[in-house]
From TrEMBL:
Residues 218-379 form the Integrase catalytic domain. This is Integrase catalytic domain-containing protein. InterPro entries: Integrase_cat-core (IPR001584), Integrase_H2C2 (IPR041588), RNaseH-like_sf (IPR012337), RNaseH_domain (IPR002156), RNaseH_sf (IPR036397). PROSITE patterns: INTEGRASE. The keyword Coiled coil applies. GO terms for biological process: DNA integration. Keywords: Coiled coil. It comes from Acer saccharum (Sugar maple).
């Protein structure tokens, strides 16, 4: 800033010029006093602005300076036709402010021409007073609260929210704190909520959203072994033969489960498992649902599906609800393994067949039948029946048993139909509970969003102080129900769609 002696002028003069380019927005200002002194300064803005916006900002800033210095009449020289054609009073702030009519009535007894508006103003003005030219409201939390115009409200809120003494409070808390500091304006609570919602730091450290964003979409298989879900359990303790992973497949109709330990998660191992445990054992399925891992999304696995006419659907990343049946089975298998192993965790691969047998011979609440009976039409004989001679073991007759098995097969179709009805009712019950917790979040093309930070990509240097959300990203495509394709400037589009559960709107 520089002060010069100029030739004497008889009123305050203000010259403003603004500019904007790819490197930023700036403005130059010259204020001349009636005594002939000149104050020159340059302004740099930390936000993007057009030329006209830069000149507006510079004009507002310098008018405030002129007010503080006691200027009662200012000549303004500016090269923007848009700014010149606007009323300077509107730019300056108070002429169209909510404060003006109340102050005019209290000081000069000026009322609106409309009788109803005049009556309303009189009633409203009873709670206000003018002291030293400033309007104050008689409040409840403080005796007097200074009335603030719209040009200052934003700055006060931002200072209280994120200034040196700011605690990044939520909207309601921010409004209450502003009132306690002695400031008031009619839209205080709405403005406080808006400022808090648009704080970038608050958006990136906000807690994860627990409520699901979309209604539950139940998956129903049309016939036995037509639709399979496949997933992986890892990491596991190293087993005797070096196995560190397990691959699990579940049939959506019968709830039958197949699982195998794996040493390495590779595409060839995945293909071998699908062939041996699904294609060769049961039938060629109509659909396979997997996650987006490379072992399921590689060229060879796609060729296998194309060869046999299998529809291969992928669950949205980090969204187990789309393959929820497999996730539930994984939890059951891990729970049973923990119970069986106790201390010898490395022998899980040897215990896995026992866990599968236990699962297949246990009635599932979703069907009212065991997976074994849904697959074969009869209940399996388990060890306890031979140890303690159950009635069917004790009274076993070969011919009668064969006849009963044939009758069971004749009855199997009806039992499966009944199980399907029970399963549908079960899914509806689950959906009602799930949907009662839904807080819908849907996005449209072009929306700016933040994405939840994955544990594997979290900033380890920041530790527990790391942001929970990253971005902003832009919605560039809709990949399916509740799944979106997103792009970030400088990174391009993410290779996989992201589910709405891990996105939230970004406020500028």
């Amino acid at each position: 800033m520089m002060v010069e002696q100029n030739k004497k002028v008889f009123k305050w003069q203000l010259r403003v010029d603004g500019s904007s380019n790819t490197h930023g927005s700036r403005a130059g200002v010259v204020v001349s006093t009636p005594e002939g002194d000149s104050v020159k300064c340059a302004l740099c803005f930390d936000f993007k602005a057009t030329n006209n916006q830069a000149e507006y900002e510079a004009l507002i800033a310098r008018l405030k300076v002129c007010t503080v210095l006691g200027a009662d009449e200012v000549e303004i020289f500016i090269d923007s036709q848009v700014v010149v054609n606007q009323e300077v009073g509107a730019v300056f702030g108070e002429r169209d402010s909510w404060i003006t009519p109340i102050k005019e009535y209290l000081v000069n007894d000026v009322l609106p021409s409309d009788p109803l508006e005049a009556k309303r103003l009189k009633y409203r003005a009873t709670r206000y007073s003018v002291l030293n030219g400033e309007l104050y409201k008689r409040g409840y939390s403080r005796a007097l609260q200074k009335c603030i115009g719209p040009e200052e409200a934003e700055g006060i809120l931002r200072n209280i929210h994120s200034g040196n003494c700011g605690n990044h409070a939520g909207g309601v808390s921010l409004a209450h704190k502003t009132l306690r500091q002695g400031f008031y304006w009619p839209t205080l609570f709405a403005d406080a909520k808006r400022v808090a919602a648009r704080c970038e730091a608050c958006q990136k450290i906000a807690n994860n959203i627990r409520q699901p964003p979309e209604l539950l979409q139940s998956i129903t298989s049309p016939w036995p072994f037509a639709m399979w879900g496949i997933d992986l359990i890892d990491p596991m303790p190293t087993a005797a033969r070096g196995a560190k992973h397990a691959i699990v497949a579940v049939d959506y109709f019968t709830k039958w489960v197949e699982a195998e330990p794996l040493v390495h998660i590779t595409e060839s191992n995945t293909i071998s498992f699908v062939k041996k445990n699904i294609l060769y054992r049961f039938r060629i399925p109509n659909t396979i649902i997997t996650d987006n891992g490379t072992q399921f999304d590689g060229k060879k696995f796609r060729e296998l599906c194309d060869k046999y006419g299998i529809n291969n659907y992928y669950a949205s990343p980090a969204h187990p609800q789309t393959n929820g049946q497999t996730e539930v089975v994984n939890k059951i298998i891990k729970h049973n393994l923990k119970a069986k192993l106790v201390a010898k965790k490395g022998s899980w691969a040897d215990k896995l067949p026992q866990v599968l047998w236990a699962y297949r011979t246990t009635e599932r609440g979703s069907t009212g039948e065991t997976p074994y009976s849904m697959a074969y039409g009869a209940e399996a004989v388990i060890p306890v029946e031979t140890s303690f001679s159950s009635p069917r073991v004790q009274l076993f007759q070969l011919k009668l048993n064969i006849d009963m098995l044939k009758c069971g097969l004749d009855e199997l179709e009806e039992r499966r139909e009944c199980a399907q009805i029970i399963n549908t009712a079960y899914q509806q019950k689950v959906a009602r509970y799930y949907n009662s917790h839904v807080r819908e979040r849907r996005f449209t093309l072009g929306d700016l969003v933040l994405k939840r930070v994955n544990p594997g990509t979290r900033d380890e240097v920041a530790g527990s102080l790391a942001d929970k959300w990253e971005g902003p990203y832009q919605i560039t495509g809709i990949a399916g129900h509740g799944a979106y394709r997103i792009t970030r400037e400088g990174l391009g589009e993410l290779p996989r769609p992201c589910n709405a559960q891990y996105l939230k709107i970004y406020y500028l």
